[in-house]
Amino acid sequence: MSLQLVQPDLVVQHQKTWLGAVVVEGPVSPACLAGLTMNKFLTNFRPSEQQKAALVEIAGLEDPGLVFIARHAAEIVGYVTFLRPDPYTRWLAHPRILELGAVEVSRQWRRCNMASELLASAFSYAVLEDTS
Fold first, then answer.
1. Residues 97, 63, 33, 22, Cα dihedral to 10°
2. What are φ and ψ of residue 101, in 5° steps?
3. What does pLDDT average to over the chain?
4. What is the largest CA-CA distance in the chain?
């Protein structure tokens, strides 16, 4: 048994920062991510283009992979991911658990409250609060 997203609702929030307007949205589809560019400073885990490929892969997971992004125009400036636990952990036996995979905000966009906004948007998504 696994979590199933039957027509998930998109969470969208608009933020004004001193660097410009940002849209925080998710979960986004692989197609949505493919049409965006990654900020060149999103490199905490791997080079930005490789990280974009990883986000597209996570967003395409059926069991589910959730990606929430903060974007300025068509550039991703931050993201948060959720995915199923690693197959070798005891948590995999619990079908309704998702792990917070990563939170990253470009160093250019830090001090704009992006990490907080990303997490608030993600946790306002109903699937993450499913207690049934």
1. -20
2. -85, -50
3. 86
4. 45
